[in-house]
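#lab-general

N.A. 3:47 PM
ok so I finally got the sequence cleaned up, no stray characters, all 149 residues accounted for. can someone with queue access submit it? mine expired

B.Y. 3:52 PM
send it over

N.A. 3:53 PM
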Amino acid sequence: MESSKTLRRFCDLIGLRYTDLDRGCCRTELTITDAHLNPYGTLHGAVVYALADTGMGGALSTLLGEKESCATLEIKISYLDSVRTGTLLCETKVVQRGKGIAFLESEVFNQEHRLLAKASGTFRIFKPREGKVVDPYQDSQPPFPSEKA
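B.Y. 4:20 PM
back already:
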C-alpha cells in the first residue's frame, strides 16, 4: 500500500507514533529531539501542527467508508505554551462528520498533561469515481502504534 508507506515515512521522519486509534478518536505522541527545535531553542510550531494534522487524519479515517479518503481543508491552531524537551501527546476527536466535510479538534499536551496547543480542523471527504482508494490508516499493524525497522 503506497499511501500507507508514505504515511509511515513521514511519521518516521519526525518521530511521530500512534498510541491509540478508536472510532472517531486518535492519540499520537512524539519525543522531542534537537531536530524539532526552532532557532530559539524551543519546539518548532510545525511539529505541533504535524501532530494535530496527522491525528485528525487518523481519527477521521476510522469513520470513512471503504472507498472514501480525506484531506485537510484548513486547520486553526492556538499555541498556548512552549516546551524544549520531553514527550508530546496529542488527543484528537471527530466533532462532526457530514457527507463531504468533517470537523475535528486536537489538543497537544506535554508529559505532565500541561496544555500546549489547541487545534480545530476541517477535512474534505472524497468518494472516488472509479476504483478503490487505499486507506493509509487501514494497514494491519503499522503505523499503529509504531513501526521499528
